[in-house]
Amino acid sequence: MGQCGITSSKTVLVFLNLIFWVEDEVNHSIQKVYNEYNGTNTDAPSRAIDYVQRQLHCCGIHNYSDWRNTRWFNESRNNSIPVSCCKPNVSNCTGSLAHPGDLYPEGCEALVVKKLKEIIMYVIWAALTFAAIQVFGMLCAFVVLCRRSRDPAYELLMTGGTYA
C-alpha cells in the first residue's frame, strides 16, 4: 500500500512538471504542423489543423495572419487561408484575407495549451485522490494494528527468544 502512495506522489510531480513543459512543446510542435499543412484531407497534419481550428474556433498559431508565413499560403497564391478558419455562421466563406471578419480572430496555440492544461489537471486530481485514498488506507491499518496490540487476546507466542 505504501508503494502505491509513493508512486502516485511521483506521478503528481511528473504531471506538475508537464504543465510547465507543455507550453514550450506545443509551440514547437504546432509551428512544425502548420508548416507541413498542404490543404488536402488525406494528409494527417492538414486534417489535424483543420480539426483543431473547427473544434476550438481558432485560426493560425497566434491569429489568422500567421498563415501568411506558411509554405501552403505562399504556394497557393490566392491570398486565402484554410476554410476551417471560417466562422460557422458565415455563409460562402472562402478564407479570403480580404474579409477578416469572416475568420476566427483568436489563434490556436493558447487554446490548445489551455485544453492540455485542463486535461493534465484532471489527471493530477485523480492521482492526488488516489494518493489520499492510499494514505487513508494506511491510517486505518495503523489504527487497527494499534488496537490489536493492546488487546490481551493477541499475545506474541515467544518461548526462549524464538517464535513458536
UniProtKB/TrEMBL annotation:
For this protein, the record's Gene3D superfamilies field holds: Tetraspanin (1.10.1450.10)
Membrane association type: Multi-pass membrane protein
Coiled-coil intervals in this record? none
Q: Where are the transmembrane segments?
A: 119-145
Q: Where in the cell is it found?
A: Membrane
Q: Does the keyword Membrane apply?
A: yes
Q: Tell me which domain of life the UniProt entry assigns to the organism this sequence originates from.
A: Eukaryota
SUPFAM superfamilies in the cross-refs? Tetraspanin
The record's Gene Ontology cellular component field reads: plasma membrane
Q: What is its main location?
A: membrane
Under the heading InterPro entries, the entry gives:
Tetraspanin/Peripherin, Tetraspanin_EC2_sf
Q: Which UniProt keywords apply?
A: Glycoprotein, Membrane, Signal, Transmembrane, Transmembrane helix
Annotated signal peptide: 1-24
Q: What does this protein do?
A: Regulates the proliferation and migration of oligodendrocytes, a process essential for normal myelination and repair.
- Quaternary structure annotation from Swiss-Prot or TrEMBL: Interacts with claudin-11/CLDN11 and integrins.
Question: What family is this?
Answer: Belongs to the tetraspanin (TM4SF) family.
Specify the protein name. Tetraspanin-3
